[in-house]
Design goal:
It is built from 3 helices and 2 strands. It has 58 residues and is an alpha+beta fold. The chain has one domain. It has a two-stranded antiparallel ribbon with strand order 1-2. Strand 1 and strand 2 form a beta hairpin. Helix 1 crosses helix 2. The chain is elongated.
Length: 58
Amino acid sequence: MQAKQIVPRIGLEATTAKIEGTRGKLKRLVERGWLDEDAPGRFTLDRHVRGADRVNSR
């Protein structure tokens, strides 16, 4: 997903400031291993995180 798609879904106004702020936070989550950035600006859950969710959901 892109930041501009995430912002309204988390209840924020879809302004440039909110989108850019969210994008920065998503980039930090990529650095910490929670998200992957498959293409510039496109974020997905990290494969390891997705696998951990399946293990913990038993």
